[in-house]
Amino acid sequence: MNASSDLSLTHLQNTAASHDEILNFGRPANPTNFPNPQFSAVTRVNASVHNPATGETAVVTNVFYEVRPDGMPPARAYWIGRTLRKAIFGCVRSCTVLRLREGGWAGPHGNSFWEITPEMAAVKIIDLRLVREYRGRHIEDPIKEVAAMQFLCRNGAQPNVLPCWDLFRDERYIYLCMPFCSSGELFGFVERSGRFEEPLARFWFGQLLNALYHMQKNG
Fold first, then answer.
1. CA distance 204 to 206
2. Could you give the CA distance from residue 35 to residue 149 in angstroms, rounded to a whole number?
3. Measured between alpha carbons, how far is 18 from 24 in angstroms, rounded to an integer?
4. pTM for the whole thing?
5. Fewer CB within 10 A of the terminal residue: the chain, N end or C end?
6. Can you give the chain as a three-state secondary structure string?
7. pLDDT 10s digits, 2-18
């Protein structure tokens, strides 16, 4: 989309409301009580991984993927990489997305054969020990966060809202898998640029409004 083009935001009726009209409308509704998150089982293993770009194969650590009840292979696996950010309840790490090689499935707990894809992901790894210790003592609620992300994606992804690809849980951790945003956060652009010219500001602000509209519409 061109930064200088007009954005279609006619569905955002409150953008034309005055301050007095908003005050007279009354108190906002309480946030949605999201359904409990639905976790899939997961295994975290050492795995044989092939790199198509170099032709090399190696056994690597920290590969995780869904353990399906029917024993069928998962859609993808994740190879955990560097730490992107530390958080109160854990950390966010980059991941390389893996796919099974033809004939490579050896069962949920076997030594399956994977290969690297060009796709990257980010995984928020939430330590359940910290959740039990600190939940309710901080404004941030990691369980409500993952429930909200899963709820907002139930009818498909919205282009301006970061989707939840997979949500796993084992005895120690929750794994929230999302797309990897290689350019970082919008706030980083603001810090580096100091300010945006109006056409660029309108471009980003239009996307923010669309995301907020989607979230408000869904509770």
1. 5
2. 11
3. 10
4. 0.81
5. N
6. CCCCCCCCCCCCHHHHCCHHHHHHHCCCCCCCCCCCCCCEEEEEEEEEEEECCCCEEEEEEEEEEECCCCCCCCCCEEEEEEEEEEECCEEEEEEEEEEECCCCCCCCCCCCEEEEEEEEEEEEEEEHHHHHHHCCCCCCCHHHHHHHHHHHCCCCCCCCCCCCCEEEECCCEEEEEEECCCCCCHHHHHHHHCCCCHHHHHHHHHHHHHHHHHHHHCC
7. 343 444 555 555 456 67
Per-residue pLDDT of 81-133, as tens digits, reads 999 999 889 999 999 999 999 999 999 988 999 999 999 999 999 999 999 99
Cα dihedral 117, 142, 207, 15, rounded to 10, equals 170
How far is 144 from 132, CA to CA, in rounded Å?
A: 14
Please name the residue that has the structure tokens 């429930």.
147
What distance in Å separates the CA atoms of residue 212 and residue 12, rounded to the nearest whole number?
10
Which residues on adjacent β-strands are paired with residue 56?
51
Q: Quick one: tokens of 187?
A: 């706030």
Q: How far apart are CA 94 and CA 179, in angstroms?
A: 10
**219 contacts: CB under 8 Å, gap ≥ 6:** 31, 32, 34, 151
Give the residue from 89, 99, 33, 31 showing the smallest Cα distance to 65.
99
Contact 181, 123 (CB under 8 A): no
Chain centroid to CA 60: 24
